[in-house]
Write a structure and sequence with these properties.
Radius of gyration: 20 Å
CATH superfamily of the largest domain: P-loop containing nucleotide triphosphate hydrolases
CATH class of the largest domain: Alpha Beta
Number of helices: 9
Strand order of the largest sheet: 2-3-1-4-5-6
Shape: globular
Order of helices and strands: EHEEHEHEHEHHEEHHEH
CATH architecture of the largest domain: 3-Layer(aba) Sandwich
CATH topology of the largest domain: Rossmann fold
Strand content: 15-25%
Helix content: 25-40%
Number of strands: 9
Largest sheet: 6 strands, mixed
Structural class: alpha/beta
Distance between the termini: 35 Å
Length: 298
């Protein structure tokens, strides 16, 4: 393909900056969990955008935060490691913050003294004035020389096309890395695990969701008696306390039924087949500091 461009774009920023919402809007599919709770994204999730003259592979990364366990430290390392391999970096900040946060200062330090192509993406412009946006631009531009600056609203899908145009300018020429029909490198098993975790994040209280790990133990496609395809999926939700197990299951099993129902509905919509799902809850008190768990997730 003549004059065709392709490359990798790392999306980095502090927790709750709107990175996952941005990724989902860019590719037009819900592949990354989006909730109002911090530390939602745990792994580097790839989303693929195919344009007329380019293929852009976006990498959504865990939000930068203060680590409280080996697992959290590993999450942050995953985020920083994507910077080195990216052709373009999207540094996502919030227009609602009047000062540069400690986490964002750390990111800027990582970017300094390197020849990175960095686009400053100022998110959530739908809730602030133009004057405030200009102040944010100046505040960050005084510290780092960005390739360009694009104010957006990921939630309102504002200026997303402009952002894609700017990214394409900085991509190297090259052939596509993936088939043009693909939109993510995640396996169906990984998508299922993320969907279940998303429902846990949305349905459970503040503390519990960040202490869970979802594992698909079995995922088998078969045909039922009518000849229609159906997935049999066995899932285990690991939590760090016995008291959390009781809350996840709920009175008479109602919370677990709700998690299973909402998860199954979304999984069926994505996979396009009926799903027969079984979910168990087990306690693993120190999984966040267990290298075997961390290795499987990251």
């Amino acid at each position: 393909m003549e004059n065709y461009k392709s490359g990798f774009v790392s999306i980095i920023g502090r927790t709750n900056a709107g990175k996952s919402t941005l990724l989902n809007n860019l590719i037009g599919e819900n592949i990354a969990i989006t909730t109002s709770k911090p530390q939602t994204t745990r792994t580097a999730i790839k989303g693929i955008v195919n344009r007329d003259n380019s293929q852009i592979i976006f990498i959504d990364t865990p939000g930068i935060h203060k680590p409280k366990s080996k697992f959290n430290e590993s999450m942050i390392n995953v985020a920083y490691n994507t910077i080195n391999d990216a052709d373009v970096i999207l540094f996502v900040v919030e227009a609602t913050y009047e000062k540069i946060s400690e986490e964002n200062m750390k990111i800027l330090e990582k970017l300094k003294n390197k020849n990175y192509k960095v686009i400053l993406v100022i998110n959530k412009i739908d809730v602030v004035s133009k004057e405030k946006i200009l102040k944010i631009i100046k505040m960050y531009s005084d510290i780092y020389h960005f390739s360009t600056v694009v104010p957006i609203s990921a939630k309102k899908n504002k200026n997303i096309d402009i952002l894609l145009e700017e990214i394409e300018k900085y991509l190297p020429e090259g052939q596509p890395y993936y088939d043009r029909e693909e939109y993510t490198d995640q396996t169906e098993r990984q998508l299922v695990e993320e969907i279940v975790r998303e429902k846990c994040l949305k349905l459970l209280n503040e503390e519990i969701p960040h202490g869970i790990y979802v594992s698909v133990e079995k995922m088998k496609l078969r045909k039922n008696k009518k000849g229609k395809e159906i997935y049999d999926i066995d899932i285990t939700i690991y939590c760090i306390r016995k008291s959390h197990k009781g809350i996840i299951i709920g009175k008479d099993g109602n919370m677990l039924k709700k998690i299973a129902t909402y998860s199954r509905q979304k999984i069926e919509a994505i996979l396009g087949v009926k799903v027969n799902m079984k979910i168990w809850v087990k306690v693993s008190e120190d999984w966040k500091n267990n290298s075997n768990f961390t290795k499987n997730i990251l």
